Amino acid sequence: MRVKLNSDSDLYMTITAELSCLVPGSLVIEAHQVTNTLYVHVLDLELYGGVEKVRADVLALEARVMRAMASKEELKRAGVSLTKKTTAERAEAAL
Fold it and tell me: Between β-strands 2-4 and 37-42, what pairing exists: parallel, antiparallel or unpaired?
């Protein structure tokens, strides 16, 4: 499945991809630098919660990485808040 990341930083994309591979049953197949997109393979996708759950979890992971490392300007550009409300929570609220 495809996950378009919020940041355009290679560093945050790399860290997010590496951390995503630590989730049992998931593997980043490709990281596309030009489009800031990760292609993720997940075993038993339906058991995990479906495509949107995986996408929300990867984006929440990216937001955590950015809160730990990014400047306020980078956070603002990526649309990541400084509060503890995660990208996954915002995505769920939008549904």
Answer: antiparallel
pLDDT tens profile 14-34:
999 999 999 899 999 999 999
Phi/psi of residue 3, nearest 5 degrees: -125, 110
Beta strand residue intervals within 1-95, DSSP E: 2-4, 26-32, 37-42
Contacts of 36 (CB under 8 A, 6+ apart): 4, 5, 7, 8, 13
Contact 14, 31 (CB under 8 A): yes
Global pTM reads 0.84
Q: What does residue 16 show for φ and ψ, rounded to 5 degrees?
A: -60, -40
